[in-house]
Amino acid sequence: MKERFTPKDDRLLPSRELAYHYTVAMHFGQQLELNLRAILYTADYHGWGNDIVLTPEQKRRFRETEGFIDKATCGAIIAALRSVGVIKENAFFKIFERACSYRNKLAHSFLSEQNFDQMTEADKSALIIRLQEMAVDLYKGMRFSRAFRSLIEAESDKDHERMKKVFLEFLGPGDNFPNRKYATRIPKKKR
User: Fold this and answer.
1) Cα–Cα distance between 87 and 90 in angstroms, integer?
2) Residue 165 above 60 pLDDT?
3) Mean per-residue pLDDT of the chain
4) Closest CA to 69 of 42, 48, 91
5) pLDDT higher for 98 or 158?
6) For the ranges 8-17, 22-31, 61-70, which has the lowest average pLDDT?
7) Burial zone of 129 (CB within 10 Å; 0-12 exposed, 13-18 middle, 19+ buried)
8) Residue 19 belongs to a domain
9) Which pLDDT does position 188 carry in this prediction?
């Protein structure tokens, strides 16, 4: 059995309160990204808006648009959504871009920039306020992206129902028809 890491001094790691606020903000960032991917995937699947145009580097890296949607960075997804044109209001992209920049900051450098060994209670309080401010913008981006996702998936469901009726005429009852793809993925069990 592996030994669990137990810090000898609580200041070596973020406090539980700070870790909680970090986790909340990061959760909103991940949900934002998932929603944006779902919007882009649905628009691409149904052919709504402009085509996703991959750069030569993106074509080499992702091979096709579905791979791009699955693996591209949050910023690249936002840029693709902007070019597709299913969301027309620029103000929403400003919200998404700001939230994405916070998501990136949290994911890549926020914790490593902190000196938990030297952190005072005042420093911790200021950092928690900063995390809460970031969380507000991330939450706003997540809520708007969720609203757009709901709208586009409702249209997708209507389209899907029309397609099921057409298939039903040709294939008859009893056939299963696929549902939309993007939801939180359930990891496969290791064998």
Assistant:
1) 8
2) yes
3) 87
4) 42
5) 98
6) 8-17
7) exposed
8) yes
9) 46
Q: What are phi and psi of 53, to 5 degrees?
A: -105, 115
In a domain, 71, yes or no: yes
Query: What's 147's DSSP letter?
Result: H
Residue 186 counted as domain residue = no
CA 41/CA 37 separation, integer angstroms: 6
Structure tokens at 63: 């091979």
Check: CB of residue 75 under 8 Å from CB of residue 100: yes
Task: Find the domain containing 36 and state its range.
Answer: 14-153
Q: Which residue has the tokens 């913008």?
A: 137
The Cα–Cα gap between 62 and 53 comes to 12
Decide: 102 and 66 in contact? Cβ < 8 Å.
no
Residue 97 covered by a domain: yes
Position 186 scores a pLDDT of 46
Exposure class string for 4-31: b at 16+ Cβ within 10 A, else e: eeeeeeeeeebbeebeebbebbbebbbb
Q: Which helix (H) or strand (E) holds 130?
A: helix 121-171
Gyration radius of the chain over CA positions: 21
Q: Which residue has the higher pLDDT, 172 or 156?
A: 156
Per the structure, the count of domains in the chain is 1
